[in-house]
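Two proteins were folded this term; both appear here.
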Amino acid sequence: MILQYLPLVNWSNGIVMIAVFGAVCVGLVTAVLMLMNSGKKK
């Protein structure tokens, strides 16, 4: 009954936000891995 007054999910905007968040996370992980692999070897 409370869900009729409080829409928790906006699918039109939510899917885009999830896709952007996922792309940013993948980019950050890739950047960290590249920085780790390009470090000077002892």
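Next, the second protein.
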Amino acid sequence: MTTPHINAPAGAFAETVLLPGDPARARYIATHLLEDAQQVTDVRNMLGFTGTWRGQRVSVMGTGMGIPSCSIYATELVREYGVRRLVRVGTCGTSAADVALGDIVVALGASTDSRVNRQRFGGHDLAALASFALVRAMADAAMQAGSALRIGNVFSTDMFYHPDPALFDLLDRHGVLGVEMEAAGLYGVAAELGAEAVAVLTVSDQIRNKQAMSPAQRETGLEAMLRIVLDAVTT
């Protein structure tokens, strides 16, 4: 079995797949956190791996940046490989004054400036929501680890360099916790195909004051978040 973008054989993926944007991060997760990880796909150098965490099978695969790229891989994983749970793991920025660098955000919902879900939903507005079961599992795992989570709305933008600075005032007025580029599209795919999805993000940038985590801080923060995620999806 292959698809235009994945050359893994049938059965190569676990039912739960972690989805970082960066394929190098997928390799890092596989080699540093999973046991007995094997590479299963490498089309366009978008790497995917399957291994185990605490004895349970888990996969990880890069998705690239943005809703279109993420949606391609999510769709093929669910339709062709029987994946049931899609967990975006990555970073986000924030403009909210009460959200700090290093905070972990679980995207309960994802607003967006993209039209992709309107196209998917007959021109109407789809409420792009995470799986409640996965959100609850993340909250339980974080509590066990003694870590705090921020759970709420994020904003998935098609534009990394957004031309309208007033956008961030709008997001703050509506209590949006973070800004990223994939969750709304991922949630739309999951809703249409009957899968579960959640995005779990480490806050790496404060947009208003231009503070940012160092590369070392990003790796430390991401690894702590990833351990929570892996515990949540294998419990």
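Strands lie at 16-19, 35-41, 48-53, 56-61, 85-94, 104-112, 150-156, 178-180, 196-206, 211-212. The chain is about 35% helix and 30% strand. These notes refer to the second protein only.
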